[in-house]
Amino acid sequence: MTSIASESVATILCTSKQTRFHIESPNYRELEIDGIFITVTSGSKASGKSTAKGKSKAKAEGIEILNNAKLTLKEGQRYALVGRNGTGKSTLLKAIAEKLIPGIPEGTRVALLQQSRLINENSDGKPDSENGPTSSVLEEVIERATAKQAVEQEIKVLSEGVNASDSYAPVRALRQLKHHRHQQRLFRLDKDARLRSGARGLQARKALVVYEKVVAESNTLLEQENDDITPDTLQAETQEAADLLADLQIQIDPARVSETESQAKKILTGLGFSEALMEKPITSLSGGWHMRAALATTLLQQTDILILDEPTNFLDLLGIIWLQRYLQGLEDTDRPPTLILVSHDRDFISVCSDLIILKEKKLISFHGDLPTYEASQSERKLWLTKMKDAQDKQKAHIEESIAANMKAGKANDDQNKLRQAKSRQKKLDDRWGLQVSNRGGRFKLNRDLVGYHLTAREDIDIAPENRPVVIYLPETLDLRFPGALISLEKVAFRYSPKMPLIVQDITLSVSMGDRIGILGLNGSGKSTLIKMLVDETRPSSGNVTTHPRLKLGYYSQHATDALQDIGREEPGLTALALLSREVKTQTDEINEGELRGLFGKLGLPGRFASDVPLMKLSGGQVVRVELARLIWRQPHCLILDEVTTHLDYETVTALREALRDWEGAVILVSHDRWFMRGVIEGARDEDEEDSEDEDEDEDSPRRRVVYRLKGGKMSVLEKGVDEFEQLMEKRVKKLLQQ
């Protein structure tokens, strides 16, 4: 069966294995769907007529995301969906949320958090708020999660009718409300009919035709004259209006509304909203706070499947730890939703008990965490390699024996030798791989051949792994004479003499090879400090000095937004063209091969750099473009502000490894604890223990220090990231007890 979703620029086309005997599960929190194909095609191709039939229709021209995959979700389980940038994780989540995959029951309630604002702008440029431009953050979150305003509007319509002196008013109000509901349902059915194809599409179009008649009849009743309404109809519909009004009023019962509001406040507080910020107009929020409000809305909804796509991107560590504990706490509720989570933050996805790995267009289910999965994959590869080596040696020995017997048999006309050689050749041709049965015992032809020979005869196959993600950072240029790269001496900053200090009394020295981490909650002054380090802001007092030959690379947390804006302004501009243009402003010698090589070393090879426009690159690929812009100059110091946002976990791992051992200086601002521990503290994974003391062999060991910014003041965290994490854990514990 097939399902299609149309978008302005692309179409998601889905099929799955369904039979006419398929019985829809009554448990909306569980899914088990086989044979899933998902292809993303351009809107023009999707809208054109296709001669393909059946499942081949799902394999139309376009980017294939899944090929004959299986999706299994168990009720109440927490799944981490992992895969490289560009493999289609967000597309898969959208297909699940919009129930485009046949086999997802229509009654399933799915809440999806995507990387988008809570409210968008209309065509006239005004914010699209549910409650109007003056609605508060709290009001908007509750309305989006519960449709409270829609219920209140229906109550208003019915109340005016029931309480009116006109005896026909209750009937008019009831018919008006029903007609409005019919129109809303007609809109959804029309959407289904346009988005679906195959058997489900035919069924949806039939349902649309039937319901169009219902709406037409409803419209006729709405226009009916009072004189044509019989006394029995008047009495029955007046009573129906009163009963419906009572039911709606129960839905906004003060106790229930108060409970919802209390829960909304708890969630918003956990995500960093103060009471004052909750009461501010939703339209006044910045992009990051909009994302937090969208996350609060998603968490507040009553849902069967909860999908969170990179929920930590705009959270500080306090918010991240709170969200971890909140998601873990869902397990203690009466019916916890099934969770699907996408995140590059390894520490954060530890809340999940299971993995869904999107790899090579398949979905691999694994019960356990990410380190356990990676270890099992390494062990399996090692085992397969040993088995294959042993099998190859055995096969080579048999082939040598056959050759020797054939030679001896022909030379001496020894029929026994020749028969022995033919027998062994037959074993290789017909029975190779069948020495061990499916159950692990000795193979017997008359017992084990049936149903097993199709796969058992094959050689041991080690699947070719995806090319590992490796990031190479260039060597730094010679400074010629020693000295600190950047020095801050008792610097402070305020926007005006009457304004409070944003940062104060900060002294910091950065030398080659230093690893400096800066931790702090949002609003603690991190951005101001970074701007002074990169000379975007001059301090109000104190001194900032830099090495005369310093080359600095600065990655801003808004870098990807700026690059995407450039891509929208110049739709045909590629990453290679952009970097070539920037290099040309610095030197006349442009080596395109070197620039291509640089992109390749950062994980953006071939056509992605030279052919695909910036505006069509994924978020993770845009991050690589920005890194290429920074490091082609061979900087002595990299200042990185939330560089892991949008990257997949494999790329984060590769970047962590590259930065940890790079010879230049690194100043890192990040809420990703695992990344910070590796880059700044030099932490290594278990399989890297042999290199753990590498720094101790150096003539001048690296200076590794983690600072905390609080209220504009900077202090050293003696125990590093762990100390800051423990402080945040204590605050989260208090928040959850409120």
Write the layout of secondary structure elements.
Layout: E1 2-6, E2 10-15, E3 31-42, H1 43-47, E4 63-73, E5 78-82, H2 89-97, E6 110-113, H3 137-146, H4 148-162, H5 169-195, H6 198-222, H7 231-251, H8 254-270, H9 275-279, H10 287-300, E7 305-309, H11 317-329, E8 338-342, E9 354-359, E10 362-367, H12 370-412, H13 415-430, H14 445-448, H15 453-456, E11 486-493, E12 503-510, E13 515-519, H16 526-533, E14 541-546, E15 552-555, H17 559-569, H18 575-584, H19 592-601, H20 607-610, H21 619-631, E16 637-641, H22 649-661, E17 665-669, H23 673-679, E18 704-710, E19 713-716, H24 721-737
Parallel strand pairs: 5-8, 5-9, 6-7, 7-8, 13-17, 13-18, 15-16, 16-17
Antiparallel strand pairs: 1-2, 2-3, 3-4, 9-10, 11-12, 11-14, 18-19
Helix pairs in contact: 3-10, 4-5, 4-7, 5-6, 5-7, 8-10, 11-24, 12-13, 17-21, 22-23
Protein name: ABC transporter domain-containing protein
GO molecular function: ATP binding; ATP hydrolysis activity
Keywords: ATP-binding, Nucleotide-binding, Repeat
Report on the structure:
- It holds the Pfam family ABC_tran.
- There is one protein chain.
- This protein is an alpha/beta fold.
- Among the domains are: 137 residues, no CATH class; 85 residues; 159 residues, 3-Layer(aba) Sandwich (Rossmann fold), CATH 3.40.50.
- Helices cover 43% and strands 16% of the residues.
- It has a 6-stranded mixed beta sheet, sandwiched between helices. Strands 15-16-17-13-18-19 form a 6-stranded mixed beta sheet.
- Strand 1 and strand 2 form a beta hairpin.
- Helix 4 runs antiparallel to helix 7, helix 5 runs antiparallel to helix 6 and helix 17 packs across helix 21.
- The chain is globular and about 110 Å long.
- The two termini are 49 Å apart.
